[in-house]
Fold:
Amino acid sequence: MATTDQVRETVNAVYLSDSRRVLSTLIRLLGDFDVAEEALHDAFRAALEQWPRDGVPANPRAWLVSAGRFKAIDALRRRARFDALDELGDKADIAVHDPNAWADHESVEDDRLRLIFTCCHPALSPDAQIALTLREVCGLTTEEIGQAFLTPARTLAQRIVRAKAKIRDARIPYQVPAQAELPDRLEAVLRVIYLVFNEGYAASSGTSLTRHDLSAEAIRLGRLLVELLPEPEAVGLLALMLLHESRRAARTSASGELVRLEDQDRSQWDRELAAEGTTLVERAWASRRVGPYTIQAAIAAVHAAAPAAAATDWAEIVALYDVLSQVDASPVIELNRAVAVAMRDGPAAGLVLVDAILDRGDLSDYRLAHAARADLCRRLGRAVDARASYERALELTRQEPERRFLEQRLAELTA
Amino acid sequence: MKYLCLVYLEEQKLHAVPDSECAACGVGLRSSGLLIAAEALQPIETATTVRVRNGKMSITDGPFAETKEQLAGFYLIDARDLNDAIQVASRIPPAREGSIEVRPIRELSP
Structure:
């Protein structure tokens, strides 16, 4: 017989590995996020009481779902007495006759997808989608999410409460979208994951520890999505995140300064992550349904393949940007392409393109456009133009490490 | 579940979609069992706002909101869920000129 402490450890382990799965199934069975969350806690409380006495069940997850469902119905019965019981009864009886119906692998994995798609429903505001996904799918507390996004926990809690109320009152269905809607809806999910990743990736000092966790969380989400729904763009996004993540250690210096890709110490790159990312890019590419995430990942993979900055295959990168502008034309992509052209054909060729973009006015308030122009002018020895553009970029930047980086460049120009 | 699809249009676009097309949309929705009621509205200048404060009724001309778009009509539909309602809303012809606000109907508590 296991000791109480051992059982307690088992319960904790099951909580870590399975609480989100149990929750996603309870939401389906009970039809309400809040009721399901309460049921989840009741179920784990019951496990702590009963498992030491009765032993750990053969299928803990099914036991927890069953216990949670039972507790919820019991609580609702007591609360609601007889009113509205009929409606609840319909929902709660779904799986009554077949206890395995809520435990079989496929429907449980579908529940996890249902949860992801519901949390990322486009009828919810983008902020709410992110908060709800981190709370419900990843199981972070509102305090943790608040810290990571530098937002008061109370604001986040309100955002989550409001989102859940909308799901309930406007009746956002708990389902994986039909094939016809899947591309658009998947895009929303991918956007949420990528925003979470970037929020963690862009941070580089101060609270970097908690914020780094966001990138790890996004990668975990990306992996989950690829496991549940291996659409090429989901694979491409995971590849992109892994390839970016592989450069994290080299991206900032010991003193917290930003290090440009070309100046990074490539021996610090995480080869294992890069290799995994590259393999995933190839897999997504082979589907012949390439989207923007896959193409960006392919560009990151070209960088990862170069043993030194000077050995970068810029012709390949320009070609990939050409493909990218076809599927996802935007001035920012055009700017990145111009920078790649500058690397392939020299700064003068790049400057013509950057100036054309800036002249159109599309990116006149985009700091990186001015920083790129400054850099090209510097390489061409046009110090006055370089200075003006660095100064404009400095005016526009909001990030401290970026500001220091630009000030450093400006100082070098004077020296 | 019932949803009210409110059609908003800028004044100069009130007649951008032919009436016949809106009528056909209504007929289509009705035959698929989704439509409860649908009407187009007279322009906002014909609106009157009624308020009762402290038992006293006041009447004012038009709504005060200074928005470019005005309520041009509505479709009261019966849909399975929000996804279903959004699908219906996207088929309402003025969706391409203005916007359709989809609002779930709240059942009055007994």
About this structure: The radius of gyration of chain A is 25 Å. Chain A touches chain B at residues 121, 123, 169-173, 175, 177, 181 (CB under 8 Å). Residues 89-99, 204-209 of chain A have pLDDT under 50 and may be disordered. The CA atoms of residues 281 and 337 of chain A lie 20 Å apart.
